[in-house]
Amino acid sequence: MFEGTYTAIVTPFRDGRVDFDTFRALIDRQVAAGIDGIVPVGTTGESPTIDPDEHLEIIRRCVEFADGRLKVVAGTGANSTAEAVHLTAEAERLGADASLQVCPYYNKPSQEGLYRHFRAVAEASSLPIMLYSIPGRSVIEIAVDTIARLAADCDNVVCVKEAGGSADRVNQLLQAVPGGFTILSGDDPLTLPFMACGAVGVVSVAANLIPDVVARLVRACRNGSFDEALEIQRRHYPLIRLLMTLDTNPVPVKTALALCGLCPEELRLPLAPLDDTRRARLGETLKQYDLL
């Protein structure tokens, strides 16, 4: 179900409101680069600061703007099961192709709680579900056994976005999940090693800025051309890593898009703009890659 390059797309703001004209242009740019799908209202889309009405309107507009040219995997996870169920049902009604379900954060459930949470969401919708394990933000991970159990018990739980930082966990997952269940990298710098272990793509932050590069790297891996993929990775690794480490995602990538004239630089609190030193460093790096 999920293979290839999916962009965790930013949410552009202008004067405190979602800038849907820019959003359409960003989606058109993803289509032109050959991206397989977009993931709106995820971490990179500043979902914690999106109000409920905006959340559904972003999904609706995303489906409209994509117009069947790429898949829309709506971010509808939450730390409240009832909220995740509601958002996922609404995303299905609005025409999304699938749902991204982040590991519940802050309330720190047990693995049994995680299983029951995701199963409740899966049973309330027919949308294919991509689990999202990101212990760096959620404190806990979705354990390999829990993912395998969900994949066995829920026909529409078909993928995991793996952002735990371990290529060996990809190996563990492949031993545990049924055939047809896919693994995507949730961390741009680890896409190549994850795919060398058996992942089949990425949900990418960097693809907001360099969608053609990320798509080429993933295609090379899928074709078994790992020498070509390694060359692409070596060339672009400094930029990709900077986008992930200069500040909290999505501050660096949104700033980069703004410097390139592709998106307003506006963020929502509690995210804050880059200071002058880091902004200058980002600008110099963009120049090195002929993006400015």
Approximate shape: globular
What percent of the residues sit in helical stretches (DSSP H or I)? 40-55%
H/E element sequence? EEEHEHEHEHEHHEHEHEHHHH
If strands are numbered along the chain, what order do they take across the biggest sheet?
Answer: 9-8-7-6-5-4-1-10
CATH level-3 fold name: TIM Barrel
List the helices and strands and how they pair.
Blueprint: E1 4-7, E2 13-14, E3 17-18, H1 20-32, E4 37-38, H2 52-66, E5 71-75, H3 81-94, E6 98-102, H4 111-123, E7 129-133, H5 135-138, H6 144-153, E8 157-162, H7 167-176, E9 182-185, H8 191-197, E10 201-204, H9 211-222, H10 226-245, H11 251-259, H12 276-288
Parallel strand pairs: 1-4, 1-10, 4-5, 5-6, 6-7, 7-8, 8-9
Antiparallel strand pairs: 2-3
Helix pairs in contact: 1-2, 2-3, 3-4, 4-6, 6-7, 8-9, 9-10, 10-11, 11-12
Describe this structure in words.
- There is one protein chain.
- The protein is an alpha/beta fold and 292 residues long.
- The protein has a single domain (4-223), classed as TIM Barrel (Alpha-Beta Barrel).
- The chain has helices at 20-32, 52-66, 81-94, 111-123, 135-138, 144-153, 167-176, 191-197, 211-222, 226-245, 251-259, 276-288; strands at 4-7, 13-14, 17-18, 37-38, 71-75, 98-102, 129-133, 157-162, 182-185, 201-204.
- The strands form 2 sheets. An 8-stranded parallel sheet has the order 9-8-7-6-5-4-1-10.
- The longest helix is centred in the last third of the chain and has 20 residues, at 226-245.
- The radius of gyration is 18 Å and the shape is globular.
- The relative contact order is 0.13.
